[in-house]
Amino acid sequence: MEPSLRNTLLTALLALVFGFLGAATWSYSGLADNRTRAFLLEKPEILQEVAEALARQESSERLASLGDDLYEPFPGAVIGNPEGSRVLIEFSDYNCGYCKSSLPDVQRLVDADPELKVIVREWPIFEGSEDAARMALAAGMQGKYREFHEKMFEFGPASPASVEAAARAIGLDMERARADAASEPVSVELVRNMTFARSLGFSGTPAFIAEGTPLPGAVGFDRLKEALDQAGG
Q: Ranked by mean pLDDT, which of 7-16, 42-51, 66-75 comes out on top?
């Protein structure tokens, strides 16, 4: 760990431990130069825990700043119970291998919990995936979002041919779907999702928010369920 970062974390830990603003002004050469500093240097894992705690706090603050808008899905772009009392948000890309590997985890959560509402935020950051994201939202407008979402991962990687094949496989009205995919509301939604993701500090897909807990990366079924259960309990 770089000395400057270690010094910052030491000061932050002292501020957290002692619980008042004055702690944040203590210098590394002051109070941090006593037995407290020695203890922390002997247990570097504590510094990592502090770094993670600070990151979670920052994520929570960013999340709060977005307000209710984040929880308003694009029409139809929901998996599970649209009126569910528990909410999981997923930022996803059809050309993201980790998103594909996370699909069974989300399916398990939905199938096991009738109160779970999964809001999928289409965030096409990989080359060639925007057409698939647009068609997914168009499918949502026809009430077939989950069908397309799952079929697109099955038929992927995303390309004009696979997008067309997935859309036809689930029986979309293709003329309407093409028009909707190119529409202004869909374009606005993609920009909106990108803005949300960047505001939250997410750097890639998948990224989740489980009942208010930001979880970047393919964290797996157990971690998603744990975050949902903790919020509900």
A: 66-75
Cβ proximity of 216 and 202 under 8 Å? yes
Dist. CA 200–CA 59, nearest whole Å: 6
Locus of tokens 């941090």: 32
Partners of 118 in the β-ladder? 79, 88
Which residues have C-beta within 8 Å of that of residue 90, sequence separation ≥ 6?
102, 106, 118, 119, 120, 121, 206, 207, 208
pLDDT digits (tens, 9 = 90+) for 196-214: 999 998 999 999 999 988 9
Q: What distance in Å separates the CA atoms of residue 137 and residue 131, rounded to the nearest whole number?
A: 10
Q: What is the CA radius of gyration of the chain?
A: 22
- The per-residue pLDDT for 22 is 43
CA pair distance 193, 203, nearest whole angstrom: 13
pLDDT tens-digit profile of 126-163?
A: 999 999 999 999 999 999 999 999 999 999 999 999 99
Query: What pTM was computed for the model?
Result: 0.77
What is the rounded distance in angstroms from the CA atom of residue 68 to the CA atom of residue 198? 17
Start-to-end C-alpha separation, the chain: 36
Bridge partners of 89, per DSSP, are 119, 209
Q: Which of 220, 228, 225 is nearest to 101 (CA)?
A: 220
Checking phi first, is residue 216 left (phi over 0); if not, alpha (psi -120 to 50) or beta? beta
CA distance 156 to 230: 34
